[in-house]
Amino acid sequence: MKSIVLSSLSLLPCVLAQTVYLAGDSTMADTGGAATDGWGGYIADSLSIAISNEAIGGRSARSYTREGRFQAIADVLQEGDYVVIEFGHNDGGSLSTDNGRTDCSGSGDETCETVYNGVAETVLTFPKYLENASQLFLDKGAHVLISSQTPNNVWETGVYSYEPNRFVGYAQLAAEVAGVEYVDHGAYVASIYEVLGLDTVNAFYPSDHTHTSPAGAQVVADAFLKAVVCSGVGLSDVLTTTDFDGECL
């Protein structure tokens, strides 16, 4: 069951440690009870501390950075808080027709120059955006966890198939370079989906192959928590249960 979670940074000055801040896109974001929902709010019942879900639909690591959303979290978090970062769904594309979300190609310090909305912008690579955000939070004494993106419907073609895209590897690389923790959320979701089978998983995707129903969001949330338990990362210290479906990978 989904619990009520903090949803606006404007409410946070009165919040004491500890808090888990979630930074991501629509696959993580709360939608307010629509036909589809992100997984972020569905971890609340399994945690002993508060959640602030700051995921926003349509965002990439680049646009989340440009809009100052990582900085806004850093401005209010307290030492000992947790930040979970998960992007990738909106980070692809080409800068030749810049949509404001596409990152520069590469996995390191490469940069690209573009003009978006009439403003010149130096675009970084996907890993570099995550590394910079991680450092921002580490400097405030937070525990940082980078998570790989959720998969699209692995049963979409009628046959199970999961091939992680480059942003999964980039997320792991960013965690290694930044010296923060990592969980392969996508692999855990895909593994559980394989067991659940075609009919069950297809029912989780009422609109497209990316955004889950509330029932699907709960499964995706539990897969994240399973990854946390199996990986032994710091967030496991604030879990109220470790009983989640699936196998450790």
Automatic annotation (TrEMBL):
Pfam families the UniProt entry points to: Lipase_GDSL
Keywords noted in UniProt: Hydrolase, Signal
GO MF terms, alphabetically ordered: hydrolase activity
Recorded superkingdom: Eukaryota
Signal sequence range: 1-17
Family statement drawn from the similarity comment of this UniProt entry: Belongs to the 'GDSL' lipolytic enzyme family.
Protein name in the entry: SGNH hydrolase-type esterase domain-containing protein
